[in-house]
Amino acid sequence: MKPWLPALVVYWAASAQAAQPPRIEVEEIRLANGMKWLLFERHEAPAIAAGWMARVGSVNERPGITGISHFFEHMMFKGTRTIGTRDIERDLALIEEQERVRESMRAELQLMRERLRRGEIDDLVKPENQTERYRELERAFDALVMQQRETIIKDQLDQIYTRNGGEFMNAGTDEDTTVYFIRVPRNRLELWCWLESDRLLNPVFREFYSERDVVFEERRLRTESTPLGKFEEEFQALFWEAHPYQWPVVGWPSDIPAYTLAQARDYFATYYAPNNLTGVLVGDFRSASVKPLLERYFGRIPRGKVDPPEVVTLEPPALGEKRYSAEAETSPTIRAWWQGVPFVHKDRASLDLLSDVLSGRTGRLYKALVLGRQVANQAFAFADLKKYAGAFGVEVTLKDGQDPGAAEAALYAELERLKSEPIPDEELQKVKNQAKAAAYRRLYRPMSILQQLLVYDGLGDWRYINTASVETDAVTAADVQRVARQYLSPERRTVGVFRRKETHAP
């Protein structure tokens, strides 16, 4: 698992096999309400990379509310009882009135869905398919939205941070985690503690329904309007037969417009409780001074009434190869995924190193398929190790005119060679050195360290930031050969063949 981090040019000596990246001496503490904190002092500049992570992502959803984790990433910037409003009482009253209208709209939508199932209409979104009562309620709701806009202070959280020297405020959601982070000046740490704890303690989900539309538009731009977006969703849903990793992080298009405020409040109470959160500070602070701040601000948030439910669905062992074929407006591509392992599995370092052996311009796939057989323009592998399960994948972009079947056979031939012939020591050490150099670069900046600690803790092992290079060094050529044989078998793979869509002149 190698999360994206800024690339830095750092000198790495030829004797890298004897060197190890410096250890990150992290202090772990836990507040009385269950909130976990990881603290790393680094006194190089008067700034602090600060963030927190909720152990929730698309894996924690269910059909009907897919995408709500990503949607919540948006909602957490809408403010609190103090931030984002000119009149909180008027604000809250308008939200409740909007909910009453929306409840009536949902009753009309139920009728419209029944008409859709009967084949009497073809699309819920088309105005001509909506009931007269629904259109009447929609006008009433829009009037309430206009009234509420008079009470809202847009983007006030961002404005406060900017005025106080905050930089790089952002958030992100994936299958397993949702993270929020920023860099603040050293003397603004208490302000950060107050602002972040306030949006956990007193959130107000303003513009709830209009933000659903924003997310739906984001989905349209990033998925439906890209050459492979919708095809990638279908491929992923085919690969994950039973596991909740099968739906997209952004959610299915029919679910996004169906979220309710009541569902959101239940979701927040379950997954944004302090006993499901980890906070991280990296930078110029003193741990002894910080702990009272954390207790004062974040310690006031009550523990969740119930613990988040455990994800118990397991992906069943594959019994046979699955195949997906499509025409898309893209270069001809072959994609092969195999069932892998979770992030904390004992084989993670071996699978990571296997992907490194295959990838890059000096990797085996590039040498064999791009330079050797000259059937591809690009070829790489990856190990995607998530919290509960994982995948090992290979992607090959073909040259125009090349036969996908022949290129796929060439790919498998290269993998079989790796299974049958041990990797030479020199090649393996070179790949290890490159992996350790990358680990070193990821320790160069406080924000990079913060992001790793957040993600790794969400996946189940924040100490990987220190053990990654040690684990890499311990991998042998026999280990790489073993995992190739064990995991890259035909019955474990799902194959996608994407051919260029033919276009015809009008």
Give the topology.
Layout: E1 27-30, E2 36-41, E3 47-54, H1 68-75, H2 88-118, H3 132-149, H4 156-163, E4 167-173, E5 178-185, H5 189-201, H6 208-224, H7 229-239, H8 261-271, E6 277-283, H9 287-297, E7 322-328, E8 333-339, H10 348-358, H11 364-372, E9 376-385, E10 390-398, H12 404-420, H13 425-441, H14 446-459, H15 464-474, H16 477-487, E11 493-500
Parallel strand pairs: 2-6, 7-11
Antiparallel strand pairs: 1-2, 3-5, 3-6, 4-5, 8-10, 8-11, 9-10
Helix pairs in contact: 1-6, 2-3, 10-16, 11-12, 12-16, 13-15
Quick take:
This protein has 506 residues and is an alpha+beta fold. It has 2 domains: 31-85 and 152-300, Metalloenzyme, LuxS/M16 peptidase-like (Cytochrome Bc1 Complex, Chain A, domain 1, 2-Layer Sandwich), CATH 3.30.830.10; 322-500, 2-Layer Sandwich (Cytochrome Bc1 Complex, Chain A, domain 1). The chain has helices at residues 68-75, 88-118, 132-149, 156-163, 189-201, 208-224, 229-239, 261-271, 287-297, 348-358, 364-372, 404-420, 425-441, 446-459, 464-474, 477-487; strands at 27-30, 36-41, 47-54, 167-173, 178-185, 277-283, 322-328, 333-339, 376-385, 390-398, 493-500.
Description:
With 506 residues, the protein is of the alpha+beta class. The protein has two domains: 31-85 and 152-300, Cytochrome Bc1 Complex, Chain A, domain 1, CATH 3.30.830.10; 322-500, Cytochrome Bc1 Complex, Chain A, domain 1, CATH 3.30.830.10. Helix content is 43%, strand content 16%. It contains 16 helices and eleven strands. It has helices at 68-75, 88-118, 132-149, 156-163, 189-201, 208-224, 229-239, 261-271, 287-297, 348-358, 364-372, 404-420, 425-441, 446-459, 464-474, 477-487, and strands spanning 27-30, 36-41, 47-54, 167-173, 178-185, 277-283, 322-328, 333-339, 376-385, 390-398, 493-500. The chain has a six-stranded mixed β-sheet, with helices on both faces. It has a five-stranded mixed β-sheet with strand order 7-11-8-10-9, with helices on both faces. Helix 1 crosses helix 6, helix 2 (88-118) packs antiparallel against helix 3 and helix 13 (425-441) packs antiparallel against helix 15 (464-474). The model is unreliable at 1-18 (pLDDT under 50).
